[in-house]
C-alpha cells in the first residue's frame, strides 16, 4: 500500500501534536522552581528548613502569629501553610514571597502540581509545626538540622514550652498526609515523643 502526500502530512501533524501534548504534560508535572529544589549547603546559602503548618482550625487559629514568630527569627524563612480548601475567614499572612498558602484540593484553574505540598518545598528539610507554636529559641531549626545530619535519625522532635510536666506520647507520622498525630503512649521504656 502506497502512502500519499496527504496521508504523510496528516501522520506528521498528528505526531507533532502528540509530541507537543507530551511536552506540555511533562511541564505541568514539574515543580514550579526546579532549580531551587537542589539541596543547599551551608548557612550562607539561606534557610535549610521549610516550616510547614498543616492542620489548624478555620475560625480559631494562631497561624499568622506562628508565621510572624518564625519570620522574626529569619526574614527569609520559607513557610508553607497547607489547607485542604481556602480558609474562611482568610488568614492574615504576610505578603512576602517566602510565605505561601498551599491549597491541597485539586482545582481546574490551577496546575496539578499546585495541589501537592512537596512542590512548595525548596529546602532540604521540612519542620511540621503545630498551630499555636512559636519560634522563641534562636537557631532551633538549625540545631535540629545538625542532629539530623550527625546521626541516623530521620525525625527530630522539638519541645514546646508548657506548664504541664513532660510525659511520654506515642507519635504516628503519616508522610503521605503530611501529618503527625500524638496519643497516649503504651507503657514502654522508650518514648516516641
From TrEMBL:
It comes from the Eukaryota. Residues 38-193 form the FKRP stem domain. GO terms for biological process: protein O-linked glycosylation via mannose. InterPro entries: FKRP_N, LicD_transferase. GO terms for cellular component: Golgi apparatus. This is FKRP stem domain-containing protein. It comes from Gulo gulo (Wolverine).
